[in-house]
Design goal:
Order of helices and strands: HEHEHHEEEHE
Distance between the termini: 33 Å
Structural class: alpha/beta
Number of domains: 1
Largest sheet: 6 strands, mixed
Helix content: 25-40%
CATH superfamily: CinA-like
Strand content: 15-25%
Length: about 180
């Protein structure tokens, strides 16, 4: 992994934070990364990948205005947090972590290649957005960036300091949104 190494994931697993993850359109490598490091059962409550429009709508309970947006990432994180609360009765801190992304595919996309990563805690919802430079990476390269961002958001929620050095290209940046 480029920025969130197995040692960081082990530290995530050693924290008291418990997470419900929902990813659609990208960020799935983060799931594999979390599960590949021993101790994942202490962190991961459940993972869902509602990839189709119908699955996404069913999980949210409504058709999103736009599948890949700050609003949808926030709604996914909120729904994931509610599910985490339903699944875990202990006093551990819980988060709903979500990613919605539009990445390189087998056809030319009109819109930007982008990702929105939402995280819901007991007190707030934040969304981290990134637009990737179109054509600079293949699908696997874009997936790696989005997955590393997702893992970095989770690590930061655990109180860990992780670096994103070298992850983004010149001109790419992360925008943070506090959603009410």
């Amino acid at each position: 992994m480029a920025s969130v190494h197995a040692t960081s994931i082990a530290r995530i697993h050693a924290s008291s934070l418990r997470a419900m993850l929902v990813v659609t359109g990208g960020g799935t490598q983060a799931i594999a990364d979390l599960l590949a490091v021993p101790g994942a059962s202490r962190t991961v409550l459940e993972v869902l990948v509602p990839y189709s429009e119908a699955a996404l709508t069913a999980f949210l309970g409504a058709i999103p205005r736009q599948a890949v947006s700050v609003e949808t990432a926030a709604a996914l994180a909120l729904a994931a947090h509610k599910r985490a609360v339903a699944l875990h009765a202990a006093e551990d801190p819980l988060v709903g972590l979500a990613c919605t992304a539009a990445l390189a595919t087998d056809r030319l996309k009109k819109g930007a290649h982008r990702a929105h990563i939402g995280i819901r805690t007991a007190t707030e919802t934040r969304v981290y957005s990134c637009t990737l430079t179109k054509g600079a990476r293949d699908r696997q390269g874009e997936e790696r960036v989005v997955s590393d961002l997702l893992l970095a958001v989770l690590a930061r929620a655990c109180g860990l300091d992780v670096t994103l050095d070298g992850l983004l290209l010149a001109g790419e940046h992360i925008e943070e949104h506090n959603v009410e």
